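Re: export button greyed out
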Amino acid sequence: MLRRIYVACRTLWRRPDFEQGLSEEFQFHLQQYTEDLVASGMPPDQAARRARLEFGAVDAVKDDCREARGLRVFDELQHDLRYALRVLRRTPAFTLTALFTLALCIGANLTIFAVVDSILLRPLPFPDAGRLLSIYNTYPRAGVPDDGASVTNYYERRGHLPSVSGLAIYRDGAAIVGDAGSTEREFVTRVSPEFFSILGLVPSIGRVFTEGETDPQADDVAIVTEAYWRQHLGGRPDAIGQRLRVDGVTRIIVGVLPADYSFLSSKTQIYFPLSSRLDDRGPGHRHSGSSTHMIARLAPGASIEQVQSQIDAHNAAMEADDPEGPFIAETGFRSVVLPLHADHVAAIRPTLILLQAGALFLLLIGAVNVANLLLIRASSREKELAVRQAIGASPRHVVSLVLVESTVLTFIGGLLGLAIGAAGMRLLNVLGAARLPLGSHIVFDTPLALVALAAATVLGLAIGAPVAWHNLRARTNSQRQSESRSATSGHAAQRMRHGFLVAQIALAFVLLAGAGLLGLSLKRVTAVSPGFRPEHVLSGQVTLPRSNYRDGTARIALLDRVTAQLTRQPGVAASGIATNVPFSGNSNKSSATVKGYPPRRGESARGVYSYGVGGDYFAAMGLTLLEGRFLTAADARASTAACVVDDDFARRYWPLGGALGHRVFSGSAEGRDADAFTIVGVVGAVKQAGLSDDEALGAVYYPYGDRFDSAVYLVIRSSLPPETVGTLLQQVVRAVDPELPVNNVKLMQSRIGESLIARRSPALLAILFSGIAILLTAIGTYGVLSYAVAQRRREIGLRMALGARPEQVRAQFVALALRLLAGGLALGVIGAWAAGRAMQTLLFQVPALHLATLAGTAAIMTAVSLAACLLPSRRAARISPTEALADS
Amino acid sequence: MNKTADLLPGTLDMLVLKAVSLKPLHGYGVLLRIRQISDQALEIPQGSLYPALNRLESQALIASEWGQSDNNRRAKFYTVTKAGLRRLREETAGWNRLSSAIAAALNTAPDEV
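Workaround output, generated via the alternate export path:
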């Protein structure tokens, strides 16, 4: 069968050759035969006639040959195609409406599908990527759902999990790269030696890290990406062995990664070995995962369930002789094994599926709309159809005519949809699609375009089917009773048209109500107070190179100088430093233990947000002081350490107040008294990661010192324009140390705004979709009612001749519109309730059944329906009885 | 006595395939060859010959190529393909089975029943 299609297509491709060949072949035959006849003694003219006679009609034989080749189908198709194009050209209003509808709906679907396809469906760009795993520790009852995996986990598990063929850890960070005077802050990732081989890649030049390079004494090596190699190292092969200054230390480049390499959403350009001291690999650090992550590759033939059970057994064995074991068990500790890809996109998955569902609804509305318009047109073409059938059109041909026409429409709509889809990709970029996990992988490529056109073709057949069915029915009816055209076929068609309109109203209702819920949820999130005053606060990140600022004293001295300088500038109200700021996207959870309050049995330790702060951080960020005092610059140097806790923390331990004076240890156990921090103040709780955070984990603010990372945020409160403050920040830092770059400079309000992107963008898209849906519903209502009026022209004329008033006629059609609307609304409410339930996890303090939203949606739909039936019903009321009756 | 026999339905393609399998031929040659190998008994209706050739070619049982005829005219020559030979063997076997069965049936004498 395939072979036949192939041969037919090949012949089709060289159609002129084929036709020419047939003529030539027949010519040869006739000549040859004529000559043979002449040779046997027949006169030439008689011979020629005889030859032609025996051969038969050349054209008929040619036709038989074409059919034998399977070309007849194509010829008919071509004929139908030409006919469809002619019909479509003759009714430009209909054609343009249908094309506009289809292009919008297909384009919207294509745009969303490009994202869904790139992020959720396509495998990660590694060989056999489906076998890559992510393994992380979870402490659900401590409020820490994902704590990565620790270095200890890695060394303890390596070689003990038979169902993985390799295990690796990595840790993202940032470093100051370059020689003095031309330094840049770069994203870096520290990886264990097997990291790249697990991903299934080898460096294009050089080598991967060795086991020996995990020793902190021997880890001064680096591997760079192809992009970094081209941009910074001139793309020369002798880059291997070159030196790279990182955080003031010289590293030797040992490898360059292949082109197009990227690990998940990482922006890292430079890789270092993840080195650790033997002490860091011991049991004491088993639960210090946080920023370290573990990946693995499934061994051939093994399943993810096997890995999970091996990890569980291994964890149990490890915890058995751990003194902290019972305490860890209280937190609900487990290690979770998930496919790497699924784990990475898990957070965005529901939103993307919701948007795709919304887009599909839109497509459904558009498809129903076009089907209805086609149906209306088919009804008005019944006469033409009857004539065609009278002159012998077969049922197959009746069907193929309709399907060709609808497919031509959807195919052209699909082509236009490609353009709209490409434009939609721009819109998505504005809405922040690139910031999604794997967002940089989003592509709009040829396979996608082909899928779209294939889907458009299928859509064409689906839209054409009800019309074809209608035409076939009309055909059998016309055979039965040639006179009546408003008989049973008319009723069935009318039921179908009205049913389609009801479905369309219901679908648009669901879409609009869904958008309403998302918008309401966004509004409620936005109304939440972050717990600090974000207006006029700018923050930027500085990384202090370890080589120059090895100990806390040096760092504190530098940061003191910077904040003092900043505060002295005119227009700056306050400035401070912190190891993290809210809404930065980084989590800074760790555990804290209050002296005298060991976790009771059945009560797990909890992660709390831990900050190291300096300068006038509290005033700069605008936190509220509830009790005691803020930390001051003096606290950083004082011999008795002080700390400030937030309201959530204080209320957890001292529900009746009195937190001041109590002592807190940083870590999950009580330590020596000398290591304790005395609570000197209580501040208002702050939303840490997002405005919709509802888990009050609590926060502890320690004075910035040794134990904190070398990357800090500078925070400035100033009434000056943000650009001025940004420049000021750069200048002051550079004046103190010219080698320090300042990055990630943003207003706190923009950080909050960015944290809302995952809510705002879907809500905006949903509103856009429902706007289109409403427009389509209006078109659909208008079309159906206009046709109803045209169809009953004679009846109306008669009624008016018998004395009906125009208002009565108008009311009749308004009533029809309202009846269909009522059906649509009833179904829509049920659908909206189901949709609300399905998207419940994405909503913030909004119930699945929100009455005000439903009422608002119903009001909008009613207004749209009434507006759409205004014109047709007025036209009905103006029908002149004499003309209407004269027409028939 | 009529010395040419009418073709049974479905046998035209088989005969054309057979003719072409003996030696590459042009369309008119196929006509002559069938007449020759059937001892002038079978006469192909000329109008059905070319659709049959096209049908066989679209099934990839024969292939065609332009070439020179004996008297140096441009003509399209048909050759049998491997699939064509296989089909011919099957059809021949099938035909032989059928015709001997029919012959046996028709030759049955009353006393044999």
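The two ends of chain B are 32 Å apart (CA to CA). The button fix ships in the next patch.
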